[in-house]
Amino acid sequence: MNGILVIDKPAGLTSHDVVNRLRRILNERSVGHLGTLDPSATGVLPMVAGSLTRLAQFYIKVEKTYEGVIRFGFATDTYDAEGKATGPLQSVALSLAQVRELASGFVGLIEQMPPPYSAKKIQGVPAYKLARKNKDVPLKPVQVEVKEFEILNVDGDRVAFRAHVASGTYVRSLAHDMGIKLGCGAHLESLRRTSVGEFTLADAQTLEEVDVACKGGQAENVFIHPRKLLPDLPAVTANDDTAACIFNGRTVNLPEFSNSRQVKVFYGQQELIAIATRVAGTLFHPRIVLSSASSLHTSHSS
């Protein structure tokens, strides 16, 4: 079963938990996700299944948007509400103008320390595995980009926000660092991811909804239409001869795309068969092939 679908991840599940559940629901072993979401967070978790797991490489650096709440007054060892407080609760009096001024200092290219409880690899080992064993987690600051950081409102010691960030940015670290700046500590109380690249909450379904659809024989309806994938790449519909060349890994001539670096190649309206890269002039070579020559035989036999 090949395709990409978007799960509205509930709180309490890891991203890998969602992978395991979808493997059972779809009866498909080859399932992955396009970017980890913390267990306590909810929202957009794009999932890839079957041959389309090979598209994951094109989503490594996509931007993401979030909504959430930061609580000021104490920090935690995980930088979120799941962790242990690292100090006593402090009384804080925050104004909207004050917090917006503080947030403005975190917009743009910034240096950020990843949380010790994160999937950041240290000599091949995820940081959280070291942290759980009370071992030193020798993390280094990394440069990240915060495109937008909007403070929506302030309610006592809690601040609601909306953020648009480049890949690799930890929203938990934003919360933690804001607490350091104010000198009172802070942590991320709740987080909901609202988009990953072209995927939004409008595309999302619950695991239960996907399960019902699959049991009802409507599995094809749970997937995003392939024509909506990778919207920045132009699409070409291959005829039988071009498709046959692509299935055999051969270079093809696509004169109408001479100015494009990469294209999506479809066979028919719905079957994404390859991502092709321009090698010279109007010649394109299939970088990855997502389908097989059996598609041609299926088409002729129908």
Describe this structure in words.
- This protein has three domains: 3-62 and 198-224, Pseudouridine synthase (2-Layer Sandwich), CATH 3.30.2350.10; 64-196, Pseudouridine synthase, CATH 3.30.2350; 228-301, Archaeosine Trna-guanine Transglycosylase, Chain: A, domain 4.
- The chain is built from seven helices and 17 strands.
- It has helices at residues 15-26, 96-104, 127-132, 171-182, 207-215, 240-247, 294-301, and strands spanning 3-9, 31-33, 42-49, 64-72, 108-112, 121-122, 125-126, 142-155, 158-165, 186-196, 199-200, 204-205, 235-237, 252-253, 262-267, 271-280, 283-289.
- The strands form three sheets. Strands 1, 2, 3, 4, 5, 8, 9, 10, 11 and 12 form a ten-stranded mixed beta sheet that branches. Strands 13-15-16-17-14 form a five-stranded mixed beta sheet, with helices on one face.
- A hairpin with a 2-residue loop joins strand 8 and strand 9 (158-165).
- The radius of gyration is 23 Å and the shape is elongated.
- 34% of the residues are buried.
- The model has no long low-confidence stretch (mean pLDDT 91).
What is the strand content?
25-35%
What pattern of helices and strands is seen along the backbone? EHEEEHEEEHEEHEEEHEHEEEEH
According to DSSP, the number of beta strands is 17
What is the approximate shape?
elongated
Mean pLDDT: 91
The second-level CATH architecture of the largest domain is: 2-Layer Sandwich
